[in-house]
Amino acid sequence: MPSLIRLLVILGILGGIGYGTLWAFANLVKPQMREMSVVVPPDRFAK
Fold first, then answer.
1. Which chain regions cross the lipid bilayer (predicted)?
2. Could you give the CA distance from residue 18 to residue 26 in angstroms, rounded to a whole number?
3. What is the per-residue DSSP string for the chain?
């Protein structure tokens, strides 16, 4: 039984670290905004 509890504790800690990492990436990392330009061929307008 102690080995089962140890396994569950280790899995819980790893899951908490993974969840914390995803939370940090989602909330603390801001994407850089930049302009985009796309060339559309004239034959696409004829349809």
1. 6-26
2. 12
3. -HHHHHHHHHHHHHHHHHHHHHHHHHHHPPPPP--------GGGT--
Q: Which of 19, 43, 22, 25 is nearest to 11 (CA)?
A: 19
| 10-42 pLDDT, tens digit each | 999 999 999 999 999 999 988 889 999 988 888
Maximum CA extent, the chain: 72
Query: pTM of whole model > 0.70?
Result: no
Structure tokens at 28: 């603390």
> What are the two backbone dihedrals, phi and then psi, of residue 39, each rounded to the nearest 5 degrees?
-85, 125
